[in-house]
Amino acid sequence: MQIILLNGPPGCGKDYAGAILEEGIERSTQMKLATEVKNMTHRAYGLGDIEADHYEDHKDVGISDFRGVSPRSAYIQMSECFMKPLHGDRIFGHILKAQILFHSTRFSTVIVTDSGFRKEAEVLVAEFGALDVLLVRIHLDGYDFASDSRSYLDLSDLGVQCLDIQNDGGPGFRSSLQTVFPPSRAS
Description:
Strand order of the largest sheet: 2-3-1-4-5
Helix content: 25-40%
Number of helices: 6
Largest sheet: 5 strands, parallel
Radius of gyration: 16 Å
Strand content: 5-15%
Low-confidence stretches: none
């Protein structure tokens, strides 16, 4: 099993990069560390039937479904003020690891499109091995982690290969990704 961790600030193109990689790598799928945080938060607000990414297009705006706070703020509070204090900084890494292992016969590559906490990534490196984990940091001018609790990661001290890719906001980004991960690559 190969794990590709996409890391970068909100809006830098991680989901777009994940879609490009998924279409070019056989037997691959995208997963998110935040999926379970979003599901938990939705249930806490009585929104249990709403899909995890339902608020994606307006996650930074206070809305009535979250009693006036933004979905992003509610998700961060669920993670940082409830789950991590209760279960430790690695909890969402363990949850994602369990999901990956559950689907391990269906996929040979998992693209994690929202990696941003070292402790969570360490869980995946420990389970799958440094040689089978790749960290791709995405950079886009004008984008930072100011509105987010995540940050850029460096896992090179664990033996993980780390790549930096610049999102130019145009077709060069796709080309950069396809240079590193040619579409013909079979897993």
